Amino acid sequence: MTLFLVQIIDQQKEETNTPIAPILGVFVTVLIVSICIYYVLRYLETVYVKYYKQPFYTHLYFKIKKLPSKEKALLEAHDIYQILSDRKQRYFEHRVANFLEKTTFVERDGLAITSYIRMQIAMLAVQMTFGMRNYMLEHLQTIILYPDSFYSVLNRTENYGEFNPHSKALVMSWNQFEKSRSDKHNGIHLGIHELTHVIHYNAIRNSDINSELFYDTFLELEAYLSSEKIRTMIVKSQVLRPYAFTNKFEFIAVLVEVFMETPNRLKEHFPEIYAYVMRMLNFRYFDK
């Protein structure tokens, strides 16, 4: 009996001394340290954003994706792409390629979605989020395109565009998108308007650093606009079309349209508001 107990104890010692226990201990230690480092850096970046109004960094990629020659030719004609440095152009191309790869395009009412159509929407989406580290918006997975206006089951109205957060889908009229894209000086752009709704919703629902920056700056902008004098000046200037005053969501969507389409006009009339939008999107490329 004694010999049997000794054998059991020896067996337990051998099991305890197996390599699994030390490896597991190292793994747990590394995991705990990594989590601690993450939250420390996250806190430090939050403090950094508070003072410098931008994240630690925006672009970090392990492998840069490239577009086929046909799509690259369309990219090289893009206004924002042309004003970027060579390095930022590679980042822009990578983001467009990634957006095309991960976003589902769905055609409706006989519209044939071509490479040109996909590229125009992808380039705009990347332009809108180029100042953001998390540029692949969590609440946008599908883009549904109609040739013209469509009946919205949600709103029971005939629409040119809408964002459905529950389906993570953006629905737009391609003809209206292309029409608004062709006129770059009227401050009206269907794609910019609807994508702003996506970014705004994403900022409300998420807690990444750019979402915090967008949402917190938006609250500061709301406080700034609480002045009756400022509101009167905005209305009289006609920089924003009347639809902007429907509600705060439409206001920011129209404001970003003007910022992207006619930045100099917005900056000339309302430099403070221009600065707020620039910070919200971390979009600093018009001033370079």
From TrEMBL:
- List cellular component terms (GO): cytosol
| Keyword Membrane attributed | yes
One Pfam entry name: Peptidase_M90
- What does UniProt list as this organism's lineage? Bacteria, Pseudomonadati, Bacteroidota, Flavobacteriia, Flavobacteriales
UniProt xrefs under InterPro entries: MetalloPept_cat_dom_sf, MtfA_fam, MtfA_N
The alphabetized UniProt keywords are: Membrane, Transmembrane, Transmembrane helix
Record's protein name: Zinc-dependent peptidase
Tell whether Zinc-finger is among the UniProt keywords.
no
Kindly list the residue ranges recorded as spanning the membrane: 20-41
The molecular function GO annotations come to: aminopeptidase activity; metallopeptidase activity
Superkingdom as given in the UniProt entry: Bacteria
